[in-house]
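Might you be able to review the protein record set out just below?
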Amino acid sequence: MPAQPDSKGPWRWAEEGRILEEALDQLAHLFAEAPRVEPDWDATHTRSVLMQLTQKLADNYPYFHPLYAGQMLKPPHPVARLAWSLALFLNPNNHALDGGRATSRMEKECITKLGRLFGWDPVLGHLTGGGTLANLEALWIGRELQPEHPAIAASAEAHYTHGRMARLLGVPFIPIPVDPEGAMDLNALDAVLDTRAIGTVVATVGTTGWGAIDPVDRLVAKRDQYGFRLHADAAYGGYFTLIRERLGGSARQRFAALSECDSLAIDPHKHGLQPYGSGAILFRDPGVGSIYRHESPYTYFTSSELHLGEISLECSRPGAAAAALWATLELLPLETDGAFASELWKSCRAARTLAGYLRSHQAWVILQEPELDILVFSIRSRHAGALSRMNRSIFERAASHGLHLALFTIPVGKARTALPDLDPDVDEVTVLRACLMKAEHLEWCARIFEHLEQARKEVPAPE
């Protein structure tokens, strides 16, 4: 793919390298009083290996570029990359304070700021390796607090790991059907709640496939009625609460209700501009920290303050992740009228803008209006099987020209909501999906549509 000078990415990496070199010089000066130690390494050989690695890393999609709109891959902000790299030269471990003294304080500051995003202050929580571990901790806490009612319920569109984690925890998992918009069907949930006790209900805030938001506000009322714990899997969508006033009425209400949930998972490595892996688990009631209690006399001995390992299922965790998030929040505070919120809103606008381009051409169909920044669409066809084949071909042709999307398999009935005349000659259809997570996507929608049109014209119509 030819370089696009108006796009952010590798064209600024050299500048980042110079900033990192300056910061490393300052960091080395701050540790200059330590006795000198000569590292035992071969710089020439190391450089050679890195050059080999560079060639191997080129076998990747251009995740940083706005023409990549496939998976949920958002490039870290330069300050996050630099802060992570800088901290890595010390390699702190945030499991115990003596392993990561400065970065443990940073992590606690970050958790406080994330908690305030949802109106939780005080809040208990910590960073994790990603949303899977964050959700696992919430489900584990739910099992420990509700031992008589251990079952977990989540929508059929919830992340697949919830069912897997339920098996890991040895508790029943009950998938709840979804409504036509892809959110949890509360009538179906009622039928389950009336027949058996559920210990934890997971509200998905931005499903991976559609970007749909479960009705958190109504789930809060049901939690108060039935007594289950309500956990929000907001790994993908959590940051959008910052701009909820700019979203539609139902989305605004659902995000506002997150403050009433019992726990929440959010992934800074998705919309928080962080490198992988950086997730977070938050608990509204800090008292649940007692569930984590354990003894480690050889670990927690340097301070009477809270060691983050005392409230985490993980042991060793990278302090560099806390440094990167701390630096990002210093540069881009979580303010409703700030630069971070503005960039987040551009992602939503990009999904709506691309939907407008597609809607203006009769060859395309939008399968569901985007609530956040995920857009699901398809070429039109009379037969479901042919539609799948054409979408796959468009996906391949677009990739050959530099536009990278994702494929999404859905029930044929869901497709017929937007295509009522579609012949259901197969049970499932393959459609196209775009994750427009980069703020730059808004400026590139016209070019993305041009690539789609070019790919469509190169794919022969079915007979």
User: Anything to note?
Assistant: DSSP finds 14 helices and eleven strands in the chain. Residues 339-359 form the longest helix (21 residues). Confidence is low (pLDDT under 50) at residues 1-7.
